[in-house]
Here is the input.
Amino acid sequence: MQNLLHNLNPEQLAAVTLPAQPALILAGAGSGKTRVLTTRIAWLIQTGQVSPGGILAVTFTNKAAKEMMTRLSAMMPINTRGMWIGTFHGLCNRLLRAHYRDAALPQTFQILDSQDQLSMIKRLLKANNIDDEKYPARNLMYFINGAKDQGLRAHDVEAFDDYNRKMVELYEIYDQQCQREGVVDFAELLLRTYELLSRNQPLREHYQARFKHILVDEFQDTNNLQYNWLKLMAGTQGAVFAVGDDDQSIYAFRGANVGNMSAFEREYKVENLIKLEQNYRSHGHILDTANTLIANNTKRLGKNLHTDAGHGEQVRIYESTSDLQEAQWIIEETKSLIAEGGTRSEIAVLYRSNAQSRVIEHALFSAGIPYRVYGGQRFFERAEVKHAIAYLQLMDNLHNDSAFLRVVNFPTRGIGARSLEQLQDAAKQYGISLYAAVPYVAGKAGSSLGAFVKMIEGARFESQHLPLPEMVQVVLDASGLITHYQNEREGADRVENLEQLVSAATLFVSEEGFGHDAPALLGPKSEQMVGPAITTLDGVEVLDADAPLPAVMSPLSAFLSHASLEAGDNQAQAGQDALQLMTVHSAKGLEFDAVFITGLEEGLFPHENSQKEEGGVEEERRLMYVAITRAKRRLYISFSQTRMLHGQTRYNMKSRFFDEMPEESLKWLSPKVQQQQHHSYAHPKAAWEDALGAGSNKIAQAITKVDIGWRIGESVAHAKFGEGVIVNIEGSGGSARAHINFGRHGMKLLDLSIAKLDKVPG
DNA sequence: TAGTGCGGTGTTTTT
DNA sequence: CACCGCACTA
Here is the structure.
């Protein structure tokens, strides 16, 4: 116990040892949030206030859940079994598996990932002859997910116009189709669990009584449904220990509601509000920069981070003429950091959007600097793996039409659009799944479809007693996937990934405690599977506190859930000492010795789309706050005068965020570029070739426009709109007009003979 | 039915 | 620039 609590600062200690009451912990970046969470769990258990089975700890990512588990087992001798630590979705999956009948789901229900969901919606639009220009699949998906995230079923959504009435109607059709196929999307996992518990009082009371302590990580990221889910789990008396940071709320665009923090404080009459403001990560100048920037936001709960670490180095600001040059500069700085003894994996390059990574990657590649890009495609999302998974899904649940369509003609078996049309008609006519409709299709189409069904059934028969990894192998062979990729010229990697799927299954089976010879598929007596883990209390069936996964799911079902809920690592060579490239979003929760934040330009960061949205710029500012607070010792921020985006050069102004950072903490680097740029006024052509690369049309344009006194890319000042950059010039002489990007004031088309513009020296 | 080429489009992302 | 969906041809 001494060990457990020593080294905590007074606020951390206070948080860890709070009584069993609702508590809100405002945990600033780098303030030891995870430490507080895990130490509290350990403390609660070690002081005998709660048994492991009384703990429910919820996170957003699998990584965070794993991290918590790891730290806990390092902290405590006892095993972590019986504790429910997981993501919202993982925990809901477990509950729904245990109570699948009450939740009106088939025992082998499957989880759609976003890709699957989108393709299902596209299919649905087609089947119902909906104009997908008017109702784009993506919009419908946002609509459905948005509604579900608010806890609303189709009939709960109020539609005030025809457009929305149609959307609601499609939402209803979508849900029916999911139910027919026995599939649930991510939001459905939560909504279904929420409905299950809210309708079933005994069940709800059971879990409320069991979970004496509910701990929530990243509370600022909860959406309304998640918050309501928590309230349902906690009941009115629940000891909810919510940890979050309103300044790091960067997921409003996907339904996160920071307002849940103050709602929680109000609704639960939280008396225990603790702020963790001592930062153990960053040096003073970095922290000052973050604090000063975020102070520009109006809607804050209020918090100011401080450090004992001393000022450290100033934040280095760099202006480049082009994105290429920005990348080149990153490489030079990286090299000197390494030369000074830095480690590549302790250096991160952050950007606002993924499109920015290409230029940087290219430069790093040419320079021979190892790097790792986060957020790329992950293992279970790769096409070949998804195909293999779809075969497995189909074998576990023959009514999964999405899985059926994905693989029915892959590898190609002569089943084309015509055949599938017939099949879909039959399925619609009888209200059955595609698989079940196969016997109703006659002729040539019928026989090739029949052969497919035979293949699936053969594989099912062959693997009915086999453990999971062997079943996967059977599927890979029987489906012809392996052969297909072996014959493909560039298929070697894909074959390797398919083989890795077998290894992944082996690892999964042993990690989750399934017997090595446990059959992957549900046997004929499968209905009893849930037996041993379910206890009947006063006529209510509830899941045993420490029921392991095998008690509620077959190995195959569990593996398929795992594939949907944990997309796996992205391929990049982990472990190797490589530079870390990622979006600012994916950097949340991480820290590095040195950080580059790139592309600090109006329109990019803050992103142009954020201007239109209510509170959008504040969210961008929080995003920048997150980015800054990733850095421990050294921080670089860069922006570029020109940038290639979507195949054309854009001229942006530097980000407004520069005006919101403390001048004394910034060090403006004066690179060679600046001199070149000044030089360029005398020799515009040379500068433009430099910036854009020879041969660009823009160079010619830039030069021919010199005669009217202005050129593309030049900075100007306007009395009303402030500073701007000339993006394009049309016409010539007295009738010339210029498109000028005034950043936050937007793009304006001004008549050059009328508008009063001043030159702004570079 | 299967493979090629054109045009439209384009934040951020975890589950 | 790169990806996707669609239309067209063998």
